[in-house]
Amino acid sequence: NRVNDALDGGDLEELAGLVAKRGLAPLTWADTDPEDLPATLRGIIAARLDELDAGERSLLEDASVLGRTGAVEALVTLAHEMRGSDDVLADLNRLVEKDLLDLDGTRYRFRSDLVRDVVYGRLTKTTRALQHFGIAQYLEKSQGPMVRNSVAVAIAEHYRAAAQLSAEVALVPGIDRVDVVS
Length: 182
Fold this sequence. Notes:
Blueprint: H1 2-6, H2 9-22, H3 39-50, H4 54-66, E1 69-71, H5 72-83, H6 88-97, E2 101-104, E3 107-110, H7 113-122, H8 125-142, H9 149-168, H10 177-181
Helix pairs in contact: 4-5, 4-6, 4-7, 8-9
């Protein structure tokens, strides 16, 4: 409703144009650059994100890098390893109360793929590369001799993202571009 109230006719036309371009594909916006969205819609989402406190915003950013859905344990570990944060569950509960994330047992899910895409798009490429690289390294080190296929895919996907992002940036401190690309 907040979105509908704030959009004017021009913004609705832009959204309709995006939908038409996508054909009958689901409206996850996964392939839509947040910059292609109407400015009013990006502004509403950005304003909502700006209202979050630092811990909530950082946790939402971590979740956006981990994926649209994931394990709460992974969020807790990432927050602790990357920022030394120990109050993750309180931040997570506030994000649920603010209708940004859902919890289902031990898993989180973004309530809106669009919000996830905007959060992820606001991160610098360097930050994204470092987080993807850190996640891949953590997953790799935390595995025993037998790695489940789904975990191997997650490791490869995070290394792929880190390699792609580091190729787009002149220098990412802490990432050896040649090593991550190989």
